[in-house]
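User: Hi! I'm working on a homework problem where we have to compare a predicted structure to a textbook description. Could you give me the structure for the chain below?
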Amino acid sequence: MTSHRWSVESPDRFGVRGLWAAAQARARALDLDILTVTAVAGLAALAAVLRIGALDSPAQPGEGRNVAQVFAVDSLATLLDSNASPLAWLQAGGYTALTDAFVRHTTAIGAAREPMVLTAAITAVLLWVLSRRMGLSRLTGAIAVAVVAVSPMALGLQVGVRPENVAMPWALAGITLLWTPRKHRRLAPDLWATLFLVIAVITAPVALLLIVTAAWLLWRRGRRRLSLMLSSLFVLGTGIGMGAAAALAGLRIASEGSPASTWAAADPLFVVAGVLATALSLFSYRLRPLAVGVLALTAVALIPGGPGTAALILAVPPAALLIAGSIERASRPIRIPATVLAVALAAAAVPTWIDGLRIVTTSGVNPKPMADASRWLQENLPTTPVVTDGITWVELVRTGRLPTAATRPGDCTTTCATQSWLVVTPGLRLLLPNRPDLAEAAATAEVVAVFGIGYDRVEIHRPAMAGAPDTEERQARMDAGMKIADSPRVAAPNTVDQALRAGRTDPRLLTTLSALAQTRPVRVTALPPVAGEDAANQPRRQALLTAAEEPADAIAQFFTSQNGVLRPESVTTTNEGVLIRYPAGTPAGLLIPFG
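Assistant: Happy to help. Predicted structure tokens:
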């Protein structure tokens, strides 16, 4: 009988060493998964933080209409335009309503952009998941997410309030579910993918171009019945959910924005690398379906007057994945030229991107001019309809103005443009090149108040009125003012005397003051300015008056007894005297017959 000798290698006969090795392998794989998930979550958080820093950056062309749509869903429980990507604004407005974004943020654009930050973070996570479904490495997916997170072009596109940003996660989710190496699998993922793609297209019709990628993935599986069924479901779903009219309206709105060349100038390295990677990916079986979709979006973005910004929003995340994927494919096995090229691109991009991110995240709109203009409107034109851009429309409604007392450019006809007061803001100035009627009205109107300087300047324009030229009006005010200043029955300090002689006094005030001086001696203590009106070279329409040996009520009664255009807006008795205030907007030709 052979005796058994135990040794350190004896447990191998029972598989203990194999089980231990397998357990260690699983632990290492779990550690790697945890590390990867943490890294991707960190990159998604970085993308969100950078976009939060850009919430109050200047508005982009076409963004005002979208901000107004989100606010209307949030605060007014209505859709301003039911054909203008309603599903996008229901999603964004639902988020802002649930989170009280318009209450928490000091600016309307910051509140409306907050949902875009969330969609950007979701897009980053889905981009990494798609990379894994494509068979790319963890590092490649992380690089793609990092590129989208820190690229100034991607940041600028993703922070804008646009339906394409809301549609991007839906489109990526649908493509991710369709991307499978197996020809036969359960039907549920394909049905969910079809539903997500239908939602993406209804949310932003431009997402229809990414259906090229989805169709390629289905065709590559070679299952004709499945392809026909999913295609029928997609067409039926989009037809019921959107319709031809809404699709055309969505495409029209998608064309509002900066041309592709503007965004390309902001990040030329990303554009060059993306175009090159897309072209090279057409020769890769693994990357070709995604490259076809990016190529379709790029071609549409280059159409003059087309949806440049909209197409680029949908093209940038997949393009970043193609850049990272092309580098991986070119570097397997390790090839010195491809590796050197990747390192050179990274070295050139990092300093440029750091500078671009610093500019985007530190630039912001000064809210004070708009706040001052809103206060002026509330005090002087509380119910008078004014025309302004969508973002300012939201700000005015937020501060208590009735929605019917403010009109957005899209709701303003040619007659409205020539007969309405205009609040010319940075956002409205972006729209004027596309609205000749508003541009002409702004050029011919009278500027009655100005707030702020430079880019943040806000102007309030009164509709053009028939009457004498400005030079004659000013000369008439100077003549009447000098007569009042020389009158022995009118006393005034030096500052008031200079304002009277320089023609900087409202003609209604000059007319009534001249009549008052005929009946009694009067002292003009001050001509208080109205905020914003001196900057617009408007005459002073307020006066503080006193009369020797006569109660203030007598002066107040004289002014309140005036009728028509000469009746003041308010007459207030104070300890210093009687404060007279006339409505905004100097009447034309009042002094010309008496000059």
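For your comparison, note the following. DSSP finds 26 helices and ten strands in the chain. Residues 16-53 form the longest helix (38 residues). Good luck with the assignment!
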